[in-house]
Amino acid sequence: MSARARAVVDTAALDHNLRRVRELAPTSRVFAAVKADGYGHGSVAVATALAADGFAVASLDEALRLRLAGITEPIITLSQPLDAAVLAEASAQNIQPVAYGPCQVEALAQYSGTPLAAWLKIDSGMHRLGVAADEAGALADRLATAPGVEDLGFLTHLACADDPGDPMSDRQLTCFSDAVGQRAGQRSIANSAAVLTRPSAHADVVRPGIMLYGSSPLNDHSAAELGLRGVMQLTAPIINRHRVAAGEPIGYGAQFVAERDTEIAVVGIGYGDGYPRHAPSGTPVMVGGHRCPLAGRVSMDMITVDVTDAPTAEIGDVATLWGPDLPADEIATAAGTIAYELFCRLTPRVEFGAI
Fold first, then answer.
1. Tens-digit pLDDT profile for residues 147-201
2. Is residue 304 pLDDT above 80, yes or no?
3. 197 contacts 190 by C-beta, under 8 angstroms
4. 303-306 and 262-267 beta bridge pairing
5. For residue 52, how far is the Cα from the chain centroid?
6. Can 35 be counted among the known catalytic residues?
């Protein structure tokens, strides 16, 4: 019996979710977001499994990891600082940098090596990365004549697309359109939420992330309601089972007290594996086909689960922390976070596999 947690990535579910993106944005190219090691799923495994038109990562290092693994599609680096060495490597490896501020634009304008495709990011209202909208035209003109730029596209990022009723997205779309004007070049705007709710934002390239991994980017719709399939199943073994009498505490701080004679399963996963320490008692865990509540604080190496209503659960059986029958979004809500964080916080101690 393995004593540790295991995460299995369902590549058929990845493919299903990509096909859902293409159904929603049939005229757009799809650059799949695989930054942060594929949202914790393994960037190489995800990129290998997905028949995307390209990929989006945060940094040059993340892009080179894909190239070393044999991934040949175009790759955008969304937040990589630019200098001559970075741009030379990007050109050599068919990696498309993003200029997201005046310093980045200047580095790209001065680059004189083998020409490359690049993007100018426009701050349409999120105020994180991007050149000011009223400066975008002049900076775009500078890059249009730069000897090292052979193809310039334009992108932005929507701050409130997870709430389709928020008017900020409309303001951002108008700002972006006004800033770019009629200039030649591809446009890229839509993240997962905008893919699902804003056809006007699909443009030439969409950049889906969390929806590819089977979680909902919307505040008021589940992944299943959106036609998405969960990609990761996280499991861990039961390493002990015992009875706790009514009135006895369980776990650190003695904050949980059994209200009845309770059967407790100790499961071999904890915050040292990335399971959220702040998941409260009552957070569901699947054991023996039953949804059983977490009982007591999460420890570094283990959790305690009330399996009184799962009488067949035994030492060596496997508990599911999230998966097809227990959405990660539900666990994230219980823990006061988002599925993105659950996935990205899994540690190297978790064994990964794929089906």
1. 999 999 999 999 999 998 899 999 999 999 999 999 999 999 999 999 999 999 9
2. yes
3. no
4. antiparallel
5. 16
6. yes
Mean of pLDDT values over 125-141: 94
Mean pLDDT of the 33-47 span: 96
Separation CA 93–CA 210 (nearest Å) = 26
The Cα-based distances of 71 to 93, 109, 135, 271, 312 in angstroms read 10, 28, 35, 33, 46
Q: Tell me, what DSSP letter sits at residue 211?
A: G
252-292 residue pLDDT tens: 888 888 889 999 999 999 999 999 999 999 999 999 889 99
User: What is the C-alpha to C-alpha distance for residues 322 and 238, in angstroms, rounded to an integer?
Assistant: 15
Taking the alpha carbons at both ends of the chain, their separation in whole angstroms is 20
Interacting residues of 38 by C-beta distance below 8 A, sequence separation 6+: 44, 45, 46, 47, 213
* Residues in the chain, overall count: 355
111 tagged catalytic = no
The torsion defined by the Cα of 30, 34, 40 and 43, in degrees rounded to 10, comes to: 110
d(Cα 234, Cα 6) in Å, to the nearest integer? 6
CA 241 to chain centre: 35
Is pLDDT at 3 greater than 90 in this prediction? Answer: no
- Residues 6 or more apart whose CB falls under 8 angstroms from that of 83 comprise 107
Identity of the amino acid at 295: A
| Amino acid at residue number 277 | R
- Residue tagged 């399939």 (tokens): 229
- Model confidence pLDDT, tens digit, residues 197-230: 999 999 999 999 999 999 999 988 999 999 999 9
135 has a pLDDT exceeding 90: yes
- Exposed/middle/buried for residue 191 (C-beta within 10 Å: 0-12, 13-18, 19+): buried
Residue the block writes with tokens 């008017």: 167
**Set 111, 121, 213, 252: catalytic member:** 252
Catalytic choice (35, 111, 121, 340): 35
CA nearest 197: which of 161, 223, 149, 171? 161
**Cβ–Cβ under 8 Å, residues 324 and 239:** no
Q: Which residue has the tokens 């904890």?
A: 270
- The CA dihedral of 280, 283, 288, 289, to the nearest 10 degrees, is 180
| Per-residue pLDDT at 165 | 86
